[in-house]
Amino acid sequence: MPELAEVEYYRKQWDCGLGQTITAIRVHAKKRIFRGIALTQFMESLPGAVLLASEAHGKRMLFRFSNHLWLGLHLGMTGKLRAESPRFKPAKHDHLVLCQKSKTLVFSDPRLFGRVLFHQGSSKPDWWSNLPPSPISAGFTFGRMQAYLSRHRNLPVKAALLRQDGFPGIGNWMADEILWRAKLDPRIPSHSVPQAHLRMLWRMIGFVCRGAMKSISPAFADPPPGWLFHARWRKGGQCPTDGAPLIRDTIGGRTTVWCPKCQRKTRVRKEIPS
DNA sequence: CATCTTGTTACGTT
DNA sequence: AAACGTAACAAGAT
Question: Which whole-number Å values give the CA distances from A110 to A5, A28, A79, A174, A216, in the listed order?
């Protein structure tokens, strides 16, 4: 579920714990989300630390604590963050629980595709360095996008948009929304997107990512009416622009929805005989 | 019971 | 070496 804007929403769910000391940790230790981390060290070092700040980048989050401690979270497909009362008792899917005096911070994830990372050190962790520019930042330039797409020239443009090293934070529904607005067939190879569409693609990436942030990240509200979002998963969904029945197929390993009428494969136009 | 899922990654092939 | 396609991961919803 969580893409850029949803991740930002969940990150803020722990804001109520800023400035507060972690008094205890509870985990479901053998769960997949803890794969690859020194869990014992993590559990021993975090109690006593104060949650100082947090940030999100794409689908990833970083929580900074006192004592040079850093916690990285990825929500995977079904991860959520929330805050509960101090007397909260973790349920089945509440795999990481940080107790504080007035709040309990909870990371739940039924499907366990999420991930917990941990780092101790005075500077930011390695896994938080050299991040690709976020699509909502000034660093996400047209030239950079163009270079990325030409590097992955044979990848369907839909599959390219899903790659987090190129488009951090964009996920399945946002990619479909973007391609629909750019009037691009999701199947076409990245290198054969015409120059004019490339400009539109870049603009629509910004539009969709900023629009999603505006509607979703403060209160998890749906995007405005008229977005493909609302028609996307409905059976018999229709294109909001022209009413054509939407098509569904697997592209780049993901279910993709698009309008066959306004998202055309671009063809070489025949010369008009004079 | 079968099939679906808003994500990533390991692995094999080109 | 880099790019690409696919299976696998886990569990709930339909």
Answer: 20, 12, 7, 23, 22
Spacing of A272 CA from B9 C1' in Å:
50
Å from the A13 CA to the C9 C1' = 27
pLDDT in tens, A46-103: 999 999 999 999 999 999 999 999 999 999 999 999 999 999 999 999 999 999 999 9
CA A124 to chain centre: 21
d(CA A251, CA A274): 41
How many CB atoms within 10 Å of residue A231?
17
Using DSSP's 3-state secondary structure scheme, residue A119 falls into strand
Give the distance, in angstroms, between residue A110 CA and nucleotide C8 C1': 17
Bases of chain B below 7 A from a protein C-beta are 4-9
Model-level pTM? 0.94
Judge contact between A228 and A180, C-beta under 8 A: yes
Distance of alpha carbon A79 from the chain centroid: 11
